[in-house]
Design a protein that fits this description.
It is built from 7 helices and 5 strands. Helix 2 links the parallel strand 1 and strand 2. The chain is of the alpha/beta class. Strands 2-1-3-4-5 form a 5-stranded parallel sheet, sandwiched between helices. The longest helix has 15 residues, at 27-41. Helix 2 packs parallel to helix 7. The chain is globular, with a radius of gyration of 16 Å.
Length: 191
């Protein structure tokens, strides 16, 4: 039986969520968990990687990606993430702002997405989303996360399904004073 486009679009998706907060009870983690709960409730398969808890070194620009049977020639935990990204339909990045940009813990695996370009892996056409928050009330503080996200997904030929950007949260639980978790969960409806 053939499925219409709308029916195919609602089929279960493989989703990879990369969190970047070193705080296990941080606000961006809470947004990621809200998204994950909603995705699982809709029947999607979710694989979560807490990059702050992994050992991922920065890209060395050796350009030998995928030449030794894995994404990075220097064996670290990115080689656990890369196959999941390759198989995923949707990739979600969740992070706080650290010093006006991405935390180093998630920047390293984002830098290593370059391996798919060097290795000539066809990962175009994926959907993605950004969940980010910051302490300051100024929404422009999130530009240091938003701009690299937008440029990176453009290069990879991915389509953003949305960005949830929440200013003014710092202490664990501050996200509960906003609609950030609800916005994150609502993204499931457009994947």
């Amino acid at each position: 039986q053939e499925l219409s486009f709308g029916e195919v679009d609602k089929m279960a998706k493989k989703i990879v969520v990369l969190t970047g907060s070193p705080r296990k009870n941080g606000n961006s983690i809470a947004m990621a968990e809200a998204f994950i709960a909603a995705a699982k409730n809709q029947g999607h398969q979710v694989t979560r990687f807490d990059t702050a808890q992994l050992q991922i070194n920065g890209c060395r620009a050796c350009e030998t990606c995928f030449s030794k049977g894995q994404a990075c020639s220097f064996d670290d935990d990115f080689n656990k993430i890369a196959p999941a990204i390759e198989e995923a339909d949707v990739i979600v990045f969740s992070m706080p702002v650290y010093w006006y940009t991405m935390p180093a813990q998630i920047k390293a695996p984002i830098d290593k997405l370059f391996s798919f370009v060097v290795g000539k892996r066809d990962i175009a056409g994926k959907r993605c989303a950004l969940l980010a928050c910051c302490e300051e009330d100024d929404l422009s503080v999130l530009d240091g996360v938003l701009m690299p996200y937008q440029k990176s997904i453009s290069l990879l030929k991915w389509t953003s399904i949305g960005e949830v950007l929440v200013p003014g949260v710092y202490a664990p639980g501050d996200i509960d004073k906003t609609d950030g978790k609800a916005q994150a969960a609502a993204l499931v409806e457009v994947i």
